[in-house]
Amino acid sequence: MNKSLKIHFQILNKFSELRGKEFTKFVGVFTNATPDKYVSATHHLLSRQRGVYVPASYDLAYSIKIDSTSENYYNKVSYSENGFIIKYFLPNDIADGQKERDRNALYKNYIDEIPIGIVLKEAAGYRILGLGEITSFFNEYIIVEPFLSNIGSGDILKEEKEVEKYRITEAKYLTKVRLMQSIFRKEVLNHFGKKCLICDIDQEELLVASHIKPWRKSSDKERLDKYNGLPLCNNHDALFDRGLISFNENNELLTSSRLTEDQVVAVNITPGKKFSFDSVTESYLKYHLKNLFIK
């Protein structure tokens, strides 16, 4: 796991473990926090001035801050037995480069289903609400709901501890997987260009970073290796994932005998089309051809 990914995962875990905690101090807690049992490096949880915190040279948001004392926005936190729902109004001046970056980061959290930390600023201080997931993204605001009731254990009845322990472990694993997939997708699209390798569609929201050697068969290093991925649209990703298309040793596109000629035409495939790949990608493609392709 690379350093940025590791720190992000640690910070999400810290937000979850500190759910419900209140602090009157800001510096040293939310900014310029020293390494602790949650995070292995000096870190920031929030932005001092802005409502959204996106670290420098990073394209995902760590957190949002809801200011219940401000009259500038109409952000609303609603509580229920299942947690909270937040209606959070987005920065509205896209001429401000940082505000545009904040919006873009939150949108990426939404698309990649990466949770964010939530802090409520109140008159007496700051209260951590844990983790939330952006479930709706509109032009003016987002809707944020609890992420799997948060990763932290909270108050657990004795007889429920084993079940809860499993749930927490599963939630942490899911968070790690989502972060790894998000980083992998970015690396693959940047490496190949942001368009489908086969049909050239360049609508980024429709592109998938498809693992050549499947996730379940790969090591953590291989899971993040940009050379183990191809940028594909959803249709071609499904075909590649199921072994209905592949590439031979000459990097020519192959189609499975299970596809009829009409189906090949319908999904916009040109059998025999030749591609150029890095030698490392070629080694992964040999694995796909040998182990996954259906002749």
TrEMBL record:
- Source domain of life is Bacteria
What positions does the domain HNH nuclease occupy?
196-248
Q: Which InterPro entries match?
A: HNH_nuc (IPR003615)
- Keyword set, alphabetical order: Endonuclease, Hydrolase, Nuclease
A Pfam family that this protein carries is HNH_2
Q: Which GO terms describe its molecular function?
A: endonuclease activity
Name of the protein described by the UniProt record: HNH endonuclease
